[in-house]
Design goal:
- The complex is a heterodimer of chains A (555) and B (282).
- With 555 residues, chain A is α/β, with parallel strands linked by helices.
- Chain A has 18 helices and 20 strands.
- Chain A has helices at residues 17-30, 77-80, 98-112, 118-130, 135-141, 150-164, 185-196, 210-222, 233-245, 256-272, 299-304, 320-337, 347-351, 420-432, 461-472, 492-499, 515-521, 543-554, and strands at 4-11, 34-41, 50-57, 71-74, 94-96, 180-184, 200-203, 226-229, 250-254, 276-282, 313-315, 340-346, 353-357, 404-406, 444-447, 454-458, 479-484, 486-488, 504-509, 529-534.
- A seven-stranded mixed beta sheet of chain A has the order 5-4-1-3-2-13-6. A seven-stranded mixed beta sheet of chain A has the order 8-7-9-10-12-11-18, sandwiched between helices.
- In chain A, helix 8 links the parallel strand 7 and strand 8.
- Chain A is globular and about 85 Å long.
- Chain B is built from nine helices and twelve strands.
- The longest helix of chain B is centred in the first third of the chain and has 16 residues, at 22-37.
- Helix content of chain B is 33%, strand content 19%.
- In chain B, the strands form three sheets. In chain B, strands 2-1-3-4-8-7-12-9 form an eight-stranded mixed beta sheet, sandwiched between helices.
- The chains are: A alpha/beta (555), B alpha/beta (282).
- At the A-B interface, strand 8, helix 9, helix 10 and strand 14 of A face strand 1, strand 2, helix 2, helix 4 and helix 9 of B.
């Protein structure tokens, strides 16, 4: 008996590939299984070819790596070529090709009068192979699925009959319904934002971050908040900066090209000490790149972008639950230290759906901005240099505390100054106020035995993939893993401790030049033997490429 | 609420503007406006861009920001919407120069009009990039003009553009006529919705020719109910609610006849947040 099943489905636009994938994911959840559905589109985003890869798991697990298919349902041979890396097969994979599936179109025509429901014939076919024959499941799904008409359900049943003609059956251990949810990274971040107290958001549509704006536009209005679709990314970040100055927790979400446009305002927020949250769902760059595919190449830009020296905080969740939890962290850090925080996700995390335990039920402490004391009325200094370098921030409506932010170098009162002395002091202030974050070891995830001589450092969704690959190789007790979720400022102690005594270090990240490795180099001495696993993005990590690399590194 | 002297709205900083700069007139008009409207300092938020005129917020004793070139509008809309959602009665102004609002930040104008967030947007038009010492701006007159400068392109026409975008409140003032300007600013701030005021402000260092004298000599002050004669000979009773007349007024070139006063005032419309609330209730 297997503990997981991987099914790939590919077709041209209109073949209904994503629909089948999503229905199967819902059914798997109802049966009590875990799993995830990654979706792959052509470069045009809308219409055209698409593919899904559904992994059904018997148990929830830490770490995940995409692997070869057990079953491939291919409506179009021509389209399969475009996804051959994402839908990798091996000699064990059972393939149902275009020729085989022609009969599904015929069956669909006979029942519904149209060929279009061939995807539902395929759904029935797969349900039979998985042994999920109960009609009740589909009946239960009907209220939310307009697609499941009487005729279409007949098509599903016909698919089951088709599968009776073949031998193939794949069984997972019996599962029992659990309190799980289906969620993707964009949704997890949106839910986290609402939980953390975000009441104002402004975004400009961009793949793969658009869903955050769509979700918040609906939800914020229900709870007395406000969402604005800006006329550009510049407008969007300007809106949230204004809202934050008015005292409302605010957020924007974008991807690389939009982030580039926001740099000037991030810089202003760093200098003026204004709380802001910017989500960057990374996609392949530079320029338009591949909008629908993942990469981790925005790292250098989120840490260093902008003229002058403008410290900011960068956080990177490595899985779906962390997308949720770290959004709370992002808001808390941003409010506490009055600093822009960039939350780095990527297309894979953002748009892949997962069945997972219901982490949305977890609640976290919420921090708010430090406000001035009443006795400071009429002698308030906005940028007073305090022991921890964080100064109370007055909000409009507070009488006797009026202050004006400025992008000009300013003194304690916030007045513009040309003094190099004040410039030095303020640079020190905006840097040193973040020092406590360097000790946030809780934002550095460590796995595996402390004494291991082989270490692996990774970040973002590459971290999750690394954990998955190590587990699949049974090396959990040989390789220890460090996934820093705080990228900037650098968590100096936690990473330093991890590196101590290592003989070999593997560094995994998905960008051509190895940006994180170069960044770590500035702060740490590495072991003699370094194994950087890095490549340009465009597809998620596969088990095969990681296993091959780790074996080489372990030799 | 105690009545406040205009001085209460100014802080202790001394403006860096050149002696004779039109922005002094504007700053004093602004302080008088706040005073006459009796708006408490802590309920004022002024966002500006970058340039001589954007320094204005630095001399006020209100909340605000002197932020990024061209971005006063998004910042002020965000601040106003956030305050509205908190139930805070915050008066919000966006102030910028002609470069701010009609060059680098022009993308924000039509959308601010569409959203109709209740802010007053004030442009201080000196027809030149003064802080960077005299480069041509979007409103610099064309070089074949009688009042020559070195622009190779015809200037933009801010009032015509703003009316076309659908601005609900449109007015024009002159920085040298402070009492008149106060009246306009009061009307713009109290108008519920997005309002736009174009203020001609002289630059004593980089403006070529005696532009302000030319404007003063050729201008016409608009008063509701009084007759105005257009350069083409047409005579109208001034009615700020008459869009046809407003169209005729903004089509007259500024150099030919500047009109000062309220050019157009539409019936007040729903703001962005009201629309959100309404959709949510239904």
């Amino acid at each position: 008996m297997k503990d997981r099943i991987i099914i790939g489905i590919v077709g041209a636009g209109g073949d209904g590939v994503v629909t089948v994938g999503e229905l199967l994911l819902k059914i798997a959840q109802m049966k009590g299984y875990y799993g995830r559905l990654s979706k792959y589109y052509g470069p045009q985003i809308r219409g055209g070819e698409s593919a899904v890869k559904l992994t059904i798991l018997a148990e929830n697990q830490e770490g995940f790596i995409e692997d070869d298919l057990d079953i491939l349902v291919c409506f179009s041979q021509a389209q399969l070529v475009k996804f051959k890396e994402e839908l990798s097969v091996n000699s064990q994979t059972k393939i149902f090709d275009e020729e085989f599936l022609k009969s599904f179109a015929k069956i669909s025509s006979q029942i519904t009068g149209r060929e279009q429901s061939k995807n539902l014939v395929a759904l029935g076919f797969l349900l039979e192979i998985l042994g999920w024959r109960e009609k009740e499941i589909l009946e239960a799904l009907r209220p939310g699925e307009k697609l499941l008409t009487d005729k279409n359900l007949e098509a599903v049943e016909a698919g089951k009959t088709e599968a009776e003609k073949i031998q193939l059956r794949i069984k997972l251990p019996t599962a029992y319904p659990k309190e799980t949810i289906i969620i993707d990274g964009n949704q997890a971040i949106s839910r986290g934002a609402l939980g953390a107290g975000c009441r104002f958001a402004s975004t400009y549509p961009i793949t793969p971050a658009s869903e955050i704006g769509e979700y918040l536009s609906h939800e914020l209005s229900k709870i007395g908040g406000c969402f604005v679709q800006g006329e550009s990314e510049i407008a969007s970040i300007g809106m949230i900066l204004g809202a934050s100055l008015a005292g409302v927790k605010s957020m924007t979400a974008t991807s690389g090209p939009g982030l580039d446009l926001m740099v000037e305002m991030i810089n202003l927020a760093s200098s003026c000490e204004i709380s802001l949250i910017i989500v960057d769902a990374q996609r392949v760059g530079p320029s338009t790149g591949i909008p629908t595919k993942m990469e981790q190449a925005d790292l250098a830009t989120v840490i260093f972008s902008g003229h002058g020296y403008a410290p900011r905080v960068v956080l990177a969740p490595y899985n779906f639950e962390e997308c949720y939890r770290l959004t709370f962290e992002a808001f808390n850090i941003s409010e506490k230290y009055q600093v822009p925080v960039i939350l780095l996700s990527d297309q894979y995390l953002s748009q892949t759906s997962q069945i997972t335990d219901d982490f949305l039920k977890k609640i976290y402490l919420i921090e708010n901005r430090l406000l001035p004391l009443p006795e400071d009325k009429n002698k308030y200094l906005r940028y007073k240099i305090t022991r921890d370098y964080v100064s109370p921030m007055a909000l409009p409506g507070m009488e006797g505390f009026e202050w004006r932010a400025t992008g000009l170098t300013h003194d304690e009162a916030g007045n513009p100054t040309n003094s190099s002395e004040w410039h030095q002091k303020m640079q020190e202030k905006i840097t040193k106020k973040l020092d406590p974050l360097r000790d946030r070891s809780d934002l550095v995830k460590i796995f595996g035995p402390e004494k291991a001589k082989i270490g692996l450092i990774s970040w973002g969704s590459s971290g999750e993939a690394s954990l998955g690959a190590i587990k699949s190789m049974g090396l959990e007790n040989k390789i220890k893993v460090c996934i820093p979720e705080i990228i900037a400022p650098i968590p100096i102690n936690a990473i330093g401790q991890f590196l101590k005594g290592l003989q070999k270090l593997i560094i995994v990240e998905m960008n051509y030049s190895g940006q994180y490795r170069r960044y770590l180099r500035r702060y740490f001495d590495f072991p003699k033997k370094i194994y950087p696993l890095k490549r340009a993005g465009g597809r998620p990590w596969s088990r095969k490429e990681m296993v091959d690399f780790f074996e080489e590194a372990l030799r | 609420m105690t009545e406040c002297d205009p001085k209460c709205y100014l802080n202790e900083l001394k403006p860096i503007w050149c002696p004779g700069c039109g922005d002094y007139g504007f700053l004093s008009a602004l302080a008088r406006t706040f005073s006459e409207l009796k708006i408490p300092n802590h309920k004022l938020f002024v966002a500006t861009g970058i340039g001589c005129s954007s320094r204005v917020v630095g001399y006020l004793k209100t909340y605000g920001i002197n932020g990024i070139h061209g971005r006063a509008l998004p910042i002020s809309q965000g601040a106003k919407l956030a305050a509205e959602s908190l139930g805070l009665d915050l008066t919000v102004l966006a102030i910028g120069g002609d470069g701010d609002l009609f060059s680098i930040g022009t993308e924000h104008l039509p959308h601010a009009v569409r959203r109709n967030v209740d802010i007053a947007c004030i442009m201080l038009d000196n027809q030149v990039y003064a802080m960077t010492k005299g480069q041509t701006s979007p409103t610099t007159p064309y070089k074949e003009d009688i009042l020559t400068s070195h622009s190779l392109n015809p200037p933009v026409d801010p009032l015509l553009d703003m009316l076309t975008f659908g601005t609900g409140f449109l007015a024009q003032g002159l920085a040298t006529n402070v009492p008149h300007l106060v009246g306009i600013l009061k009307a713009a701030i109290t108008y519920k919705g997005f309002s736009f005021v174009n203020v001609q402000s002289q630059c004593v260092s980089f403006q070529e020719g005696d532009w302000i004298s030319h404007l003063k000599q050729n201008c016409c002050y608009l008063k509701e109910g009084e007759i105005i004669e257009l350069p083409n000979g047409e005579k109208w009773l001034h009615d700020p609610g008459n869009k046809d007349l407003a169209r005729k007024l903004v089509e007259v070139a500024l150099k030919e006849r500047p009109y000062y006063g309220i050019i157009y005032r539409a019936p007040e419309r729903e703001g962005y947040l009201e629309r959100i609330r309404k959709i949510n209730q239904s």
